[in-house]
Specification:
Distance between the termini: 39 Å
CATH architecture: Orthogonal Bundle
Order of helices and strands: HHHHHH
Number of helices: 6
Number of domains: 1
Number of strands: 0
């Protein structure tokens, strides 16, 4: 036997564990976020800036730490959001699929327990989501939509600030056993 078979080599610190949730939590939380996104701005117009389905996609993809699970989660949330909104079917599905995949891949490299990292990630993925959505509208649908970077940055900051307490609330829904 060689020297390498007799010992275990540990490199780096562990980056956290995969969080587990009840199936009902994984179903109801995105559904409630989508319903919030669709119905609440009709009654309270100044809450239209919130993109709760995106924040829920980022959170669950981050905490599950599996790019494949993040991909399917993002696709599911995006397609349900498309089906319940007046947007063309598939636009949110494509963008949230990419966000779910990338967020889960990012979480494999970095621990996601710090509030500042969560705020930064929510901000960055909001900007990426908006840019991808704008690109798809122009490239796939040929719509002459404008992209206002100042407005997107401001909404990104607001969504990131909402993400911090939302993620803490969703942390309480994790299975502890």
């Amino acid at each position: 036997m060689s020297d390498f078979n007799d010992r275990v080599i540990v490199t780096g610190k562990p980056r956290g564990t995969i969080s587990k949730y009840q199936p009902l939590v994984l179903f109801l939380t995105p559904l409630l976020a989508i319903l919030f996104q669709i119905y609440v701005p009709r009654f309270v117009a100044y809450l239209a800036f919130l993109d709760l389905p995106l924040l829920v996609t980022i959170y669950f993809a981050f905490m599950r730490r599996s790019p494949i699970a993040g991909l399917f989660l993002g696709a599911g949330i995006g397609l349900v959001q498309d089906a319940l909104s007046d947007q063309p079917l598939g636009m949110f599905g494509i963008v949230k699929t990419l966000v779910g995949y990338l967020a889960a891949g990012f979480s494999q490299r970095f621990a996601s327990e710090t509030a500042m990292l969560r705020i930064g990630v929510a901000f960055a993925f909001y900007l990426g989501h908006q840019f991808l959505y704008w690109t798809l509208q122009r490239a796939l649908l040929g719509l002459p939509v404008s992209f206002d970077p100042g407005r997107v940055l401001l909404l990104g900051v607001l969504n990131a600030l909402v993400a911090a307490p939302l993620f803490l609330l969703l942390d309480k829904l994790r299975d502890r056993g």
